[in-house]
Specification:
Blueprint (H helix, E strand, L loop, with lengths): L1 E2 L2 H23 L4 E7 L3 H16 L3 E7 L5 H12 L6 E4 L9 H7 L11 H9 L9 H12 L8 E5 L6 H9 L8 E5 L6 H5 L4 E4 L17 E4 L3 E4 L7 E4 L4 H4 L5 E2 L7 H19 L6
Parallel strand pairs: 1-11, 2-3, 2-4, 5-6, 5-7, 7-8, 8-11
Antiparallel strand pairs: 9-10
Helix pairs in contact: 1-10, 2-10, 6-7, 6-10
This protein binds NADPH dihydro-nicotinamide-adenine-dinucleotide phosphate (NDP).
The site of NADPH dihydro-nicotinamide-adenine-dinucleotide phosphate has 24 residues, from α10.
Length: about 300
């Protein structure tokens, strides 16, 4: 059984990106830049944002964190985005979710220029991705990270049955769409399950590649997995654990302990898909910079 080590892959990728950023800077005498906006004081969001900025700097890119107060109006936020859209030193823009209730997330997504939407949430990027025009879009970071893991572990996907559990706009739907496409680490027959799916275990047991993005700890049990399947666990759930100082531990959507007895390969939580998400955000930011400077390849 192979443990798919996202921590290691993301560290390798960040090293490669650092070298690529350096090469780009020598070529253009300018630096890729990411702007991250956070509205309000949500502690978890503040940790995510700080992490993104730190990773960005370590790769040699510029990162600006714009902290706005909770009471920022939607029009103020949109005006800020317009400024960033027109700033040639900013190649990637990200607005940390969740936003305060008085701000419409859709309006915010639409206000980010698709050419700087490194989260890959803008309908233009989603549409190009669905059409298979991957060189003209940004792929949303978590599914993109999963493709990278499948590719780096040389997982044979062609013609395999991939079952995706979850149909959210940021994970399940783009993941299922990508696995359907004719690419090196995709080209699958795809089934998507969700909360209205009947006989889910019957479907998951058919999966050669099972991707769980549900948000419920240990939902996928051993009896739901075909022996030899590759299991990708996207879930990040807090489970009470009085033995920990924090009072909780992180668990995936997959019952790792038992499913790993039958899977041929599996991602752990933490240390699987999670670390890949930020690495792919950096990759998208560099990609945006390269497009802005008409650099095809390094
Ligand atoms: P959402 O809550 O947006 O979507 C969950 C999906 O799972 C929905 O489509 C829902 O179905 C489906 N679902 C929920 N319960 C069941 C059930 N009992 N049976 C079948 N389907 C079910 O979550 P996200 O996609 O945003 O995230 C999923 C998980 O991945 C979370 O744990 C999240 O923390 C984690 N995550 C991890 C990331 C990473 O970097 N590793 C990044 C993003 C998310 P329906 O549509 O019918 O409601």
């Amino acid at each position: 059984m192979i443990i798919i080590d996202g921590k290691q892959v993301s560290s390798d990728l960040r090293k490669e990106l650092k070298a690529a950023v350096e090469a780009c800077m020598q070529k253009t005498k300018s630096v890729p830049g990411l702007a991250v906006i956070i509205v309000g004081q949500d502690p978890a969001s503040q940790v995510y944002v700080r992490n993104k900025a730190k990773n960005c700097k370590e790769t040699g890119m510029n990162s600006t964190v714009i902290e706005l107060p909770e009471e920022t109006s939607q029009s103020e936020l949109l005006a800020k985005l317009e400024k960033l859209n027109n700033d040639p030193d900013v190649h990637g823009i990200l607005v940390q979710q969740p936003l305060p209730r008085h701000i419409d997330e859709y309006a915010v997504t639409m206000a980010i220029s698709p050419s700087k939407d490194v989260d890959g949430f803008h309908p233009e990027n989603v549409g190009q991705m669905v059409l298979g025009n991957l060189d003209r879009c940004f792929i949303s970071c978590t599914p993109y990270g999963i493709l990278e893991l499948l590719s780096r572990y040389s997982i044979d996907t062609k013609g395999k049955h991939c079952v995706v559990v979850g149909r959210s706009n940021i994970v399940g739907k783009p993941m299922a769409n990508l696995m359907l496409q004719k690419l090196k680490s995709t080209n699958c027959t795809v089934t998507v399950c969700h909360s209205a799916t009947r006989n889910m275990p019957e479907l998951t047991r058919q999966a050669d590649i099972l991707i769980a993005a549900i948000g419920q700890a240990n939902f996928i049990t051993k009896d739901m997995v075909k022996p030899g399947a590759v299991v990708i666990d996207v879930g990040i759930n807090r489970v009470e654990d009085s033995s920990r100082k924090s009072g909780y531990r992180l668990a995936g959507d997959v019952d790792y302990e038992h499913v790993s007895e039958v899977a041929s390969a599996i991602t752990p939580v933490p240390g699987g898909v999670g670390p890949m998400t930020i690495a792919m955000l950096l990759k998208n930011t560099l990609q945006s910079f390269m497009r802005a400077h008409s650099i095809q390849a390094l």
